[in-house]
Amino acid sequence: MGWSAYGRPLVSAGDFYFAINATFRFIHDTYGKDALVDYWRSMAREYHAGVAERFRGGGLEEVRRYLADYFAHEPGGDVSVSLTERGVELDVHDCPAIRWLKDGGREIVPYYCEHCHYVSTAIAEQAEMSFTLQGGGGACRQVFSSNGGTA
Amino acid sequence: MIGVKDFIGYYDWTFEYLRSNYGEQAVQDYWLRAISIDSQRHARALIEAKGFNGMEEYWGHTLAMEEAGYTFDRGEDYFRIDMFACPSKGHLIQRGLAAYHDYCEHCMGWIKPVMDDAGFVINHEHNHAGQCYWEMRRAWDLLAEPPPNRGPHDVRSLPPEVWQQEQHHRYVNSEGIEEEP
Q: In chain A, which residues have their Cβ closer than 8 Å to the Cβ of B3?
C-alpha cells in the first residue's frame, strides 16, 4: 500500500479549459448556436451579476484591478492589463486558454473566442460600460470603457 | 472571461442552467458526452490502457493541480482515493454557491462511464460536505457491501461530526444504494 497527501496554495487547474471547450461544443451541437449564445449571456447576467456590480460601483479602476487579478491566476499565457484614456485595455498576446488547449492537442471549437465578446459585452452593459474586442485565435485586444469612451 | 480561476462556480451554474432550460436528463447527457467522453478523454486513455496505474497517474496529476486534500491507497485488487477536502465542493461551500441541487453527483456522472468502458466498478460514498471515498475494483470483483474500513486514512475514520454531516449518497459496484439520513 502506498498513499500520499497534497495541499498547496491556490493555483488554477489548466485542464479546466478542456471542460470549457467541451461545454461549448456540447451546447452548440445539441441545442444550436443560438442556445450557446443564450448560455453565455445568461451566465453574464446571472453568475457574473456580482462582477458587473463591482464594475458599476468601482468604475474602470475596479475593472483594471479585477482583470489584473483574474489573469494573474490563469495558468500560462501572456496578457497585459492597463488603464488608459480609452479605458481598461486588455492586450492578449498569448491567450492562456487557447495556449492550453493547443498544447493539450485539443480541437478548439471555432466559436471559442466568441464567448469573450458575448459574456464581457453583457457584463459591461450591466455595469453601464461598453466593451469592444478585436482579434481572436489566441491574440486579441479587449477594451472596457465608460459609456462615452473615456476613462 | 470564462477562465479556470473560477471554473467551479461556472461549472455548478452550468448544471443548473442545463437543468432549468432542458431538464435533468440534459445534465446527465452533459456529464457523459461533454465531460466523460470529450473533456476527460486523457483520463479515459490512461485508465483504459493502464488500469489501476492509469488511475494513479491521472488522479495524481489532476488532484495535485486542484490542491485537493486526499490520500491514495493501492491494494492488489483495488485503487482507492479518500478525499478529506474536496477542492471543488470546498470552493462552493466557502462562497455560498449551490446553483445545482446536487453538485457532488457530477463525479459519478463522468467517472462511472469511464470505469464502465475500462472494465472497473466503483464503490463510493460522499457526504455533500467535501468528504468522500472512491474504491475502484475490476468489473468481475464485486462486493456484497461497501468495502471494509481501510484504516486511519479512510475518510470514514474521520470524527462523526465531519464524516456524518449532511446527506450521504452511496454506491456499491457502481450501483446507487439507499441514502443515509
A: 12, 70-71, 73-74, 96-97
Per the CB < 8 A criterion, the answer to whether A136 and A115 are in contact is no
Cα–Cα distance between A99 and A92 in angstroms, integer?
11
Reduced to 3 states (helix: H, G, I; strand: E, B; else coil), residue B23 is coil
ipTM: 0.93
> Average pLDDT per run of 10 along chain B, which is 181 residues long?
86 98 98 96 94 92 71 93 90 94 96 98 96 97 96 94 91 86 52
Residues A6-11: what's their mean pLDDT?
Answer: 31
The domain in which residue A55 lies consists of: 16-146
E strand spans, A21-87: 78-83
- The pTM of this model reads 0.92
Across the interface, of A8, A46, A74, the residue whose CB is closest to B4 is A74
Cross-chain CB nearest to A47 (options B10, B62, B153): B10
Q: Show the domains of chain B with their CATH numbers.
A: 7-180 (3.30.1380)
User: What count of CB pairs under 8 Å joins A to B?
Assistant: 122
Which residues on chain B are in Cβ contact (under 8 Å) with A12? 3-5, 7
